[in-house]
Design goal:
Elements: H1 3-20, H2 40-43, H3 61-69, H4 81-98, H5 110-121, H6 125-149, H7 153-158, H8 165-175, H9 177-180, H10 200-210, H11 217-220
Helix pairs in contact: 1-4, 3-4, 4-8, 5-6, 6-8
């Protein structure tokens, strides 16, 4: 995915998320453990400065859907929230459909989520388990919240002309799961919007080595 498009999508989703929920902030005074001092236990926990960025996902269908929908992407300074909601919901619906994540009755097809986890992370069991766990949590959590809010006047206006908005809300939940709940090393990355770095890439590499696992190709570039 073009880096500028990726950055803009993250920014747009961050704007939606900020309007809908409170993301737990990081404590700027918290000590960042030196990379050489990392242990398996520390690798399973949040690393300050490495867990504030959104996780868009590793789904290969995102590239195809970006090519389809990029012309409809609103500018970052566009104040039309309805246009933003329409673009993001249709973009998410696109790669969820291509991944066969959308099941009967517009529910999440967990069978295909688990298959995707096996395909993407088959050789990295902790990531595979985490991926499935985040979707299991979000499908229940988001369904409850979405049912409560979808018929309120303000939300109905925002969701007008959107594409299966439930899946947009679901994907935002998955994107910020590591911010609110667990942030193990394979979710550590520098904050792309602030530009801050807490040796996240080096720390990730160290933790992959501790687990005896070869890092993903993108980590080695």
């Amino acid at each position: 995915m073009d880096h500028r498009n990726y950055k803009l999508i993250v920014l747009l989703l961050a704007l939606i998320a900020a309007a809908l929920s409170e993301v737990l902030g990081e404590d700027s005074s918290e000590v960042v453990e030196p990379v050489e001092s990392l242990t398996e236990e520390l690798c399973s926990k949040k690393r300050n400065g490495c867990c504030s960025d959104f996780f868009m996902g590793d789904n290969p269908n995102m590239l195809k859907c970006m090519a389809i929908h990029s012309a409809k992407m609103p500018d970052a300074d566009d104040e039309d929230v309805g246009k933003l909601m329409k673009f993001m919901s249709c973009f998410v619906e696109c790669f969820y459909k291509k991944s066969k994540f959308i099941g009967k009755g517009d529910t999440l097809n967990m069978k295909m989520v688990k298959l995707e986890a096996e395909t993407l992370y088959g050789e990295r069991p902790k990531e595979k388990e985490y991926f499935v766990k985040s979707y299991e949590h979000c499908r229940t959590h988001v369904q409850t919240e979405f049912n409560l809010m979808k018929n309120t006047p303000g939300t109905k206006a925002l969701l007008k002309n959107t594409c299966r908005p439930f899946f947009m809300y679901l994907h935002m939940c998955v994107m910020e799961y590591h911010q609110k709940y667990e942030c193990p090393y394979f979710r550590w990355k520098p904050d792309m919007l602030s530009g801050k770095d807490a040796s996240c890439k080096e720390a990730r590499a160290k933790c992959y080595a501790i687990d005896g696992i070869k890092p993903p190709l993108m980590d080695m570039l």
